[in-house]
Amino acid sequence: MKTIYQYEYLQLGLKIAYYRKLRGLTQEQLAERIGRTPAFIGHIEAPNIVKAVSLDTLFDIAAELFLITIHEGMVNCLS
Predict the structure, then answer these.
(1) Confidence grade of residue 64 (pLDDT, cut at 50, 70, 90)
(2) Who contacts 38 (Cβ-Cβ below 8 Å, separation ≥6)?
(3) For 3-30, what is each residue's pLDDT tens digit?
(4) pLDDT value at position 70?
(5) Judging by DSSP bridges, how do beta strands 68-71 and 74-77 pair with one another?
(6) Which residues, in sequence order, are bridge partners of residue 69?
(7) Percentage of the chain modeled with pLDDT above 70
(8) Are 77 and 70 in contact (CB under 8 A)?
(9) What's the rounded Cα separation, in Å, for the pair 25 and 4?
């Protein structure tokens, strides 16, 4: 991870936490749904930890939080 993007990673984590809570999910529930550990989600969301996240993981999180699918370059809303 490039250090020039630290702020963006922190903001991303805070937004994930916001939308996770808005959907009524715990860190444990989100982690289970995307095949990660609760500690991993906690690190992403923590405002004092800079954690890089792969695009694959971001797509998985987006699919759970926004009920979308990403297939063949198209984004489809399910709700």
Answers:
(1) very high
(2) 27, 28, 31
(3) 899 999 999 999 999 999 999 999 999 9
(4) 62
(5) antiparallel
(6) 76
(7) 86
(8) no
(9) 31
Does this model's pTM top 0.85? no
E-state strands within the chain: 68-71, 74-77
Burial of 47 from C-beta contacts in 10 A (0-12 / 13-18 / 19+): exposed
DSSP letter (8 states) at residue 51: -
Token pair 């805070």 is found at 14
The number of helices, as runs of H, and strands, as runs of E, in the chain is: 4, 2
Compute the distance between CA of residue 4 and CA of residue 53 in angstroms, rounded to an integer: 15
Dist CA 49 CA 14 (whole Å): 11
